[in-house]
């Protein structure tokens, strides 16, 4: 378990992390989410003992970070942003070096990591010659080589192509079943796809900290989008508003088909009622789908409030 | 508390980095060409079986050769960002500094080892006095240690290797220069010469092992190493 309490870090006059507190439970994949410059990397750097907080405390499994940094460094596997790995080494040599310093004596472990991260074919290449995706994977192998209880990954999928992103996400999910994983990202779908919980940070503050399911739900009611033929927007709008539970009807587009977005209250599914109404009035239904508010909306709402940059 | 395993692993890695990149071969070649030239220039002329030529030249050679060796040790890591990886591995900052120091020292030993050929030449040419020769090599190691720790300190100050090199060179050159400027100072200030690296080196290379000289070099090494550690930890 990691508990962070009242963490503050400033660079000169700029307060990168402003009084952050959160707890990360074992065996969960937690996403640190925020726009660029929100303080994600700074927070992670403090958790991994690279930076020292100006004030506040971090506890990792009952070790205080300022008392036993070596113990904590042993427990954590850390992939820094954009994986700054020594350029002049072969991938195998690099992993062997890390294994040695991490006290991993079994040489087979390096090959295991090669299989797991899919880097066997570049083992004998110079790190400098690797594409960004491979470098990122070597970074992952580097972070996991000592089989740590906690994995801290700073933007693990940046620079990867879509296939690799899915591979890495699956890998993270797989690891997350047994380990505690903390990853940072500004890509929302990543959190939706991989994380159990999301902590949203904006300008050094936590603006939300909840399970991804709750966050999505809390974003407001469900939207139903329907496409109908044979009626104009005004009559459709007034008819739908009569249905109990409909809070708003908005026009999306009107051409041959009229597309509207119907916002309903949270807990009721009004699709049957809407269908009945369409059928009774004799309109032609082309499409009806439920549009759940994605994390993206939550994120925008939380991080652009108060005049912050989008 | 201080373990030798981590510094040793870091030392091996740094040494390999030296010999994988061209820098090792360039520095060693330049060093050998210069020392070879100045050693043999007067060797046959004076017709004496001694290596004084070499050891008189070494302190000045070291002032620029050694910062060239040490400049990359921390600057490169800071520039590429791998410093973050190093600092989040389970090693202390002191481990890292000592590991890099040892790598520099072993590098200098490797660089000096071909000069043993001169020794063979000297032995073949006559019967040299071994005192000054052993003292010379010992002094060279101490002096190299002091300059390496200074070089590493300036490497830890800057992301830019060139800046690390130039300031490191200036600092080493200044230490070399001190006992030469003392001539121009009024005699009550002549104690300044004790601060000069060349002064102590010349003492050792006469074949006289004086505790004061050894303490001088060791204290430079220790102070510079502590300053480097403090500097690296301060910036976190």
Note down, in words, how this protein is organized.
The complex is a heterodimer of chains A (310) and B (236). Chain A contains eleven helices and 14 strands. Chain A has helices at residues 40-47, 69-75, 91-101, 108-117, 132-144, 162-176, 188-194, 212-218, 233-241, 271-281, 295-304, and strands at residues 2-11, 14-24, 29-33, 55-60, 63-64, 76-79, 150-154, 180-185, 197-202, 205-211, 223-229, 246-254, 258-264, 284-291. In chain A, the strands form three sheets. Chain A has a six-stranded mixed β-sheet with strand order 6-7-8-3-9-10, sandwiched between helices. In chain A, strands 2-1-4-5 form a four-stranded antiparallel β-sheet, covered by helices on one side. A four-stranded antiparallel β-sheet of chain A has the order 12-13-11-14, covered by helices on one side. In chain A, a hairpin with a 2-residue loop joins strand 1 and strand 2. Chain A is elongated and about 75 Å long. The relative contact order of chain A is 0.14. Helix content of chain B is 79%, strand content 0%. Chain B is globular, with a radius of gyration of 19 Å. In chain B, helix 1 (5-20) crosses helix 6 (93-112), helix 3 (52-70) runs parallel beside helix 8 (130-157) and helix 8 packs antiparallel against helix 10. Chain B is mostly helical. Chain B has helices at 5-20, 23-46, 52-70, 72-80, 82-88, 93-112, 116-125, 130-157, 161-181, 197-205, 211-234.
